[in-house]
Amino acid sequence: MLVVKLEVWPGGDATRAYKVGEAHIVNDMTGTAERGNYDVALLHRGKHVQREGVWRRGKVARHLRQLSPYHLVLNAFKAALDD
Fold first, then answer.
1. Which of 6, 29, 48, 52 has the fewest beta carbons closer than 10 A?
2. Distance between CA atoms of 41 and 30, rounded to whole angstroms?
3. CB distance 64 to 75 below 8 Å
4. DSSP the chain
C-alpha cells in the first residue's frame, strides 16, 4: 500500500505542519508481474475532520509497474477525482 500524506507547512515552517489529507493506494492483487490494479481512497484529515473517513474512491487498472510511482499517484488522484 502506498500512503500519500498531505500537509500544510505555514510559511514553510515544518514545525507548524498540519495534515489536511491522505491518499491510500492499495494493490488489489489481481494484476500481473507487469501491470497492477489498485483501489484508491482519499481521506480528509486535520481541520477537515467533519469529513472523517473516505471522501472519494477510485480504481487504477492495468498500471504499468515499470513506471515511476509518481505515475501511479497521478493516476490514482485522477481516478478518485474524475467526476
1. 29
2. 18
3. no
4. -EEEEEEE-GGG-GGG-EEEEEEEEEE-S-S-SSEEEEEEEEEE-GGGGGG-SEEEEEEEEEEETTS-HHHHHHHHHHHHH--
Per-residue pLDDT reduced to its tens digit, 50-77: 666 898 999 999 999 999 999 999 999 9
First to last CA, the chain: 24
Look at the alpha carbons of 62, 57, 2, 68 in this order and tell me if their dihedral is positive or negative: positive
Q: How far apart, in whole angstroms, are the C-alpha atoms of residue 8 and residue 19?
A: 6
**C-alpha cell at position 35:** 501491470
Domain coordinates in residue numbering, the chain: 2-81
